[in-house]
Amino acid sequence: MFAIFTAGCGRHAEPGPQPSPTLPSTQPTTAAPTVDPRRSVQDAYERFWSVSWPVDQQPAARWQPILAAVAVDPELTRLLAGTRVQHRDGIRLYGAVVPHVRKIVLTGSGRATITDCQDASHAGQADAGTGKPRSVGVARTWVDATLVLGGDGVWRVSEINYPGSRC
Questions:
Q1: How confident is the model at residue 90 (pLDDT cuts 50, 70, 90)?
Q2: Cβ burial, residue 104 (10 Å; 0-12/13-18/19+)
Q3: Which end of the chain is more exposed for a tag (fewer CB within 10 A), N or C?
Q4: Which structural domain, as residue segments, surrounds residue 121?
């Protein structure tokens, strides 16, 4: 508002040479915020569960490409084998597991480990035909995961272990 009021006041200047248009600056603009690598690892781990858990709801031909987006071997092969066995036996997974990441360690070599106190108390196995639950998960289970950074810059789960204790 200040510029509008003062531009109308005072004497009128004769038209003079117009300034040449400015070219875009070659100077770097403000840098994009740096993403904390631990946050990227945690996001990838949480995405792993949200993608891998309901994969059996997709046609079997899509399992491998869907899982390959969030997992690499040996975990990718384990997931595919386990999903095939469950499918053959008329079992589907239901619900969702909820990660509660407690610790992230970056090794500096494109690897990271996560310690999770997972809540699977609203998830489990169900009969594929009836949808009736056959099992229910545990509320507080330790999960140890290893993730690797791919050449495409994406973190993927390479191994999931259940140490066998509650957290």
A1: very high
A2: buried
A3: N
A4: 36-161
User: Measured between alpha carbons, how far is 151 from 149 in angstroms, rounded to an integer?
Assistant: 7
pTM of the model: 0.78
Quote the CA–CA distance of 146 and 75 in Å, as a whole number.
10
109 assigned to some structural domain: yes
Rounded-to-integer distance, Cα 136 and Cα 124, Å: 4
* 133, part of any domain: yes
Phi, psi at 143, each rounded to 5°:
-130, 130
- Pair 92, 125: CB distance under 8 Å: yes
Tally of residues, the chain: 167
Strand order in the sheet with 101-106: 101-106, 111-118, 141-149, 155-161
Candidates 59, 60, 55; CA nearest to 71 is 55
Q: Give tens-digit pLDDT for 99-138.
A: 999 999 999 899 999 999 999 999 999 999 999 999 999 9
User: What CATH number has the domain bearing residue 118?
Assistant: 3.10.450.50
Question: Do the domain assignments include residue 12?
Answer: no
User: pLDDT tens digits for 138-159?
Assistant: 999 999 999 999 999 999 999 9
